[in-house]
Write a structure and sequence with these properties.
The complex is a heterodimer of chains A (297) and B (285).
Chain A lengths: L1 H46 L1 H6 L3 E2 L7 E2 L2 H32 L2 H13 L5 H19 L8 H25 L3 H9 L4 H30 L2 H6 L17 H8 L8 H35 L1
Antiparallel strand pairs in A: 1-2
Helix pairs in contact in A: 1-11, 3-6, 3-8, 4-6, 5-6, 6-8, 7-8, 8-11, 10-11
Chain B lengths: L1 H37 L5 H5 L13 H32 L4 H15 L2 H15 L6 H25 L3 H9 L4 H30 L2 H6 L19 H10 L6 H33 L3
Helix pairs in contact in B: 1-11, 3-6, 3-8, 4-6, 5-6, 6-8, 7-8, 8-11, 10-11
Chain lengths: 297, 285
């Protein structure tokens, strides 16, 4: 009897331990949200939600009256996100189509890890190359005094997000059933027509999910925009204006604020906003992927 | 009509092929552009000497290398056991249950949280709430939370790749569930999860934003001796040299530091991939 009891114990203990570590992931996510909320909610109360999100002037350390509007920062994030997605999406999708539909299996085995290696380039390195090479080039092309602006940042951020988009698009395209392709080709269509009319529509929501995940990566990118976006808090009017996205603003100012001050709370409120945006994007991507799975089954 | 279709196909396919080619080229362009200004500053002295703030040509980046290594090892010690434990729970103990779905949802969302937000989280929790201060320990804990979803995903993938036959055979021989997991499933999945984990650590080493917020510092005269010390790291050092240093040589020293960083990350990733390849050849399932 005693023996059996021991077996039960030694069988249940691992389950408990592993269960506890797994619970830690849920706990992390909840505590990230809670700590951001606790540290940042004071800012919403003090500044007012409308003023905080719609004010175009962010100047917490102003000599006269500090102003707390993050709309210009949001605009900076938006401009860079849209431009970067505009560059990375067709590029990433093309790579994915090549890897999944055209390349030989051997070629794909070799090329996919190489594309994914781009993801292991630290973003500070891309930022440095932007400062050294791309910004001077952009300045020369558009006759600007310096090339630190939204366009330069977008190009580099697009490179950073490229492997995410290409890799997930490729997974999605590859998962489209071979029967669909064969049925289409058997009807006498060309390979391209099959890709365009059958494979891509069948991959549909999975591709949208890949775009969403890439977008999440773009919005959260910090070092590149911190180094090459120009850091101007003025409201941007063109993609050649210097901008300061939300992520860069946090990184610039957080070291210099007093713990617990309104400025500190304001920065956490920006962090909370970023967290919620990426959370919603990820959740939408998740729903799309699941809808696709249930549709396939 | 048919000919036009084929022509169209040829044009589109060459665009796709070209994109893939440009994608690969980008990787090499990055390496070359870094090598050009950076290689001349890298020598033995640069790699093994302490940093000299006044005259950057006299000093080296040893404290930054050591700091990054401490950070990598620390993150590994925390996030590997936790990540593998979670992966085992997901694949071996919670087949298709409600909890499994919730945990996987949490993992995917954790993976999408911007790194600067992890920095704020670390600042609020580890630096202030737990009073670890801006220190190596705070940075290790922050990056551990950040890398956790990557490690879990890689480990779970490796565990799921272990054939069901293995588990069934072991159970049929009278082994308990835990014995099967410990003696059969885990050893078979270990190389794969290690590979994914090491690639995750390599990526974490390049992260700069959270490090700026929770503990890295620019200038240190001595190496960190306790987990509560401040420390230097390669990516932060690169950032400072690139943006805040007035020396005319700063940009080539920034490129040199970045080159060391990228070689370190690539070597780690490559080493991990080679190990996986080696084990994959040995296993016959």
């Amino acid at each position: 009897m005693n023996f059996k009891k021991n077996v039960h114990f030694s069988e249940n203990l691992p389950r408990l331990i592993f269960g506890a570590t797994a619970a830690l992931t849920i706990l992390s996510l909840i505590s990230i949200f809670l700590f951001l909320l606790i540290s940042g909610v004071g800012a919403f109360k003090e500044i007012g939600i409308k003023e905080f999100f719609l004010g175009t002037n962010w100047n917490p350390t102003s000599f006269h009256t500090p102003s707390w509007g993050i709309f210009s920062l949001i605009a900076g994030t938006l401009i860079i996100s849209i431009l970067a997605l505009f560059i990375a999406l067709p590029f990433g999708l093309s790579i994915a189509i090549y890897l999944s539909e055209i390349a030989s299996p051997k070629m794909r085995e070799m090329l996919k890890p190489l594309i994914e290696m781009i993801a292991s380039i630290p973003s500070v390195v891309l930022g440095l190359l932007g400062l050294l090479f791309l910004a001077p080039l952009i300045a020369k092309i558009f006759h600007l005094s310096n090339g630190l602006n939204a366009l330069t940042a977008s190009i580099l951020v697009a490179i950073a997000a490229l492997p995410t988009i290409a890799s997930i698009c490729e997974d999605t395209l590859s998962s489209v059933s071979l029967r669909f392709r064969e049925a289409s080709l058997a009807l006498g269509t060309t390979k391209w027509t099959t890709i365009k009319k059958v494979v891509i529509p069948a991959a549909g929501s999975g591709l949208v999910a890949a775009i969403m995940l890439g977008l999440g990566r773009i919005i959260g990118e910090t070092m590149i925009v911190l180094m090459v976006a120009g850091n101007s808090r003025a409201f941007p009017h063109s993609f050649l204006d210097p901008v300061r996205p939300m992520t860069a603003n946090i990184a610039i100012e957080i070291k210099e604020v007093v713990v617990g001050s309104l400025h500190w709370q304001g920065l956490f409120a920006i962090g909370l906003t970023l967290f919620l945006i990426t959370f919603v994007i990820n959740l939408l991507a998740d729903i799309l992927v699941h809808r696709r799975h249930s549709y396939e089954n | 009509m048919k000919i036009r279709g084929y022509l169209q196909e040829a044009i589109y396919f060459s665009i796709f092929r070209g994109s893939a080619f440009i994608g690969i080229t980008l990787l090499f362009v990055v390496l070359v552009l870094l090598f050009l200004p950076g290689h001349s500053v890298i020598d033995w002295h640069f790699l093994t000497s302490p940093w000299q703030h006044r005259d950057i040509t006299k000093g080296g980046i040893l404290p930054a290398i050591i700091g990054s290594l401490y950070l990598g090892i620390g993150v590994m010690l925390i996030s590997f056991p936790l990540g593998m434990g979670t992966a085992i729970f997901i694949t071996e103990y919670s087949k298709n249950s409600f909890w499994r779905k919730i945990i996987q949802l949490a993992i995917r969302n954790l993976a999408g949280v911007p790194s600067v937000v992890y920095g704020l989280f670390g600042l609020a929790v580890f630096v202030n709430f737990l009073s670890f201060g801006t220190s190596l320990l705070s940075a290790i804990l922050t990056l551990s939370v950040m890398t956790l979803p990557w490690i879990i995903t890689a480990s779970a993938e490796a565990l799921e790749a272990v054939p069901q036959k293995f588990r069934e055979t072991s159970l049929a021989l009278g082994a308990t569930h835990w014995q099967t997991v410990k003696k059969i499933v885990f050893p078979a999945a270990f190389p794969g999860s290690m590979t994914g984990g090491v690639i995750g650590i390599a990526r974490a080493l390049g992260e700069t934003a959270p490090i700026i917020i929770v503990g890295a510092t620019f200038y240190l005269s001595s190496l960190p001796t306790s987990p509560l010390d401040k420390f230097m790291t390669l990516p932060y050092h690169t950032f400072i040299l690139a943006t805040q240093h007035s020396s005319p040589y700063a940009s080539s020293y920034a490129a040199g530091t970045a080159l060391v960083l990228i070689l370190l990350t690539f070597l780690l990733s490559l080493g991990a991939i080679i190990i996986r390849y080696h084990y994959r050849r040995k296993k016959d399932w």
